[in-house]
Amino acid sequence: MKRLLVTGGAGFIGSNFIQQALRRREDLELLVNLDLLTYAGNLENLLPVQGDKRYVFVHGDIRDRALVEELFSRYAFDTVVHFAAESHVDRSIVEPEIFLTTNVIGTQTLLDAAKRHWKLEPDSKYSTEYKPGVVYLQVSTDEVYGALGKTGMFTETTPLAPNSPYSASKASADLVVRAYRQTYGMPVNITRCSNNYGPYQFPEKLIPLMLHNALEGKPLPVYGDGMQIRDWLHVSDHCSAILTVLDKGVRGEVYNIGGNNERANIEIVRLILDELGKPESLIRHVQDRPGHDRRYAIDNTKITGQLGWAPAYSFQQGMRETIEWYLQNPGWVERVTSGEYLDYYSRMYENA
Ligand SMILES: NC(=O)c1ccc[n+]([C@@H]2O[C@H](COP(=O)([O-])OP(=O)(O)OC[C@H]3O[C@@H](n4cnc5c(N)ncnc54)[C@H](O)[C@@H]3O)[C@@H](O)[C@H]2O)c1
Fold it and tell me: How far apart, in whole angstroms, are the C-alpha atoms of residue 128 and residue 149?
């Protein structure tokens, strides 16, 4: 991995990944961040790497074929890590189309450019063995597997059964990636991670939303009974897992990423209130989201056993540091909670 294209690097996980990759990989020659700067993209997340000569930002759309081709020609990438996506389930319920164009067509545009520049054709020798030295990594989600009952875990062979337009678009993209592997011998990996938390997360997602509201003394809107169970992982551990897959992953394989850390949403909300010394009377139960998955849990034995990856953060330490980060960065929170976000917020949580 010398010449890296990262898409969606101004978002929550992408910006954490870029910081970690540049910090840990001195042998990286170049890291290009292609990001459209939608409501979720924030260049302020990348201030710590602004002075790094290896880092280049390109403002643009992954669906823009001419631009993506031109970037491949100019920079000769050997690695693609594809984060860019419409990522919020609630938004996908209101406006599904952009999820399909960004998440599916955007993925296919990147794969096409990689295929052409890495000279992979159906009849090339790389259809049966992977071309060495190049890799396309698709950052996917455990939500593609649908929901679990009270027991069981998602493994890499669990059938895809997405329940929201968001997860359907991510599952569709995964299938396109798989097809490029089977048809053109594209050296791919797909990672499917559980819910992330940590610094730079846009405050429409559970943990930063609850933190923000609790700090302001505003009601904390909790969907339904709050007993939806998610498997939480610190974003820094997700990023280290992606670096591990790039280094040691067997090309063509899917890797689930999770920290064996199942929590009900209401438990997280109570923990935040407790850490901040705020009363539980701030909790407001609001009508549940349609198709809301009850439980996700990741079986991470493939990545831990075969690649030797393990999360570094305990949930307690990770949550404490995350809360501290939001407390130390009120300006960041203030700037991202203005404008479009507020309109969206009042539409979604009118009865809170
Ligand atoms: N957040 C999680 O808990 C989680 C868990 C598992 C997997 N994922 C996946 O990880 C990836 C990143 O998630 P996130 O939470 O950082 O998302 P995010 O919404 O914070 O960031 C998405 C980024 O993509 C950019 N973007 C959107 N459309 C684009 C386009 N057409 N062209 C270029 N850039 C575009 C946005 O500007 C933003 O910077 C997504 O693919 C998501 O499905 C997220």
Answer: 39
Tell me the domains of the chain and their CATH numbers. Answer: 3-196+233-257 (3.40.50.720)
Distance 103 CA to ligand 1 centre (A): 9
Please state which of the ranges 130-144, 222-236, 286-300 shows the lowest mean pLDDT.
286-300
Q: Nearest 5°: CA angle at 35, between 6 and 187?
A: 30
Phi-psi region of 17 (alpha: psi -120 to 50; beta: other; left: phi over 0): alpha
Summarised one tens digit per residue, pLDDT across range 213-269 is: 999 999 999 999 999 999 999 999 999 999 999 999 999 999 999 999 999 999 999
Mutate to test the pocket of ligand 1, among 18, 20, 83, 136 (most ligand atoms within 8 A of CB): 83
Give the residue, out of 7, 32, 38, with the most ligand 1 atoms within 8 A of its beta carbon, to mutate for a pocket test.
38
In whole angstroms, give the CA distance from residue 38 to residue 60: 10
What whole-number distance in Å separates Cα of residue 234 and Cα of residue 315?
8
CB 256 within 8 A of CB 156: yes
Q: With contact defined as beta carbons under 8 Å apart, do 74 and 88 qualify? A: no
Q: Which string of b and e fits 99-120 if b means at least 16 CB within 10 Å?
A: bbebbbbbbbbbbbbbbebbeb
| 97 contacts: CB under 8 Å, gap ≥ 6 | none
Q: Angle, to 10 degrees, between the axis of helix 106-117 and the axis of helix 65-75? A: 40
Residue owning the nearest CA to atom 42 of ligand 1: 87
CA distances in angstroms from 14 to 21, 189, 211, 309, listed in the order given: 10, 17, 22, 19
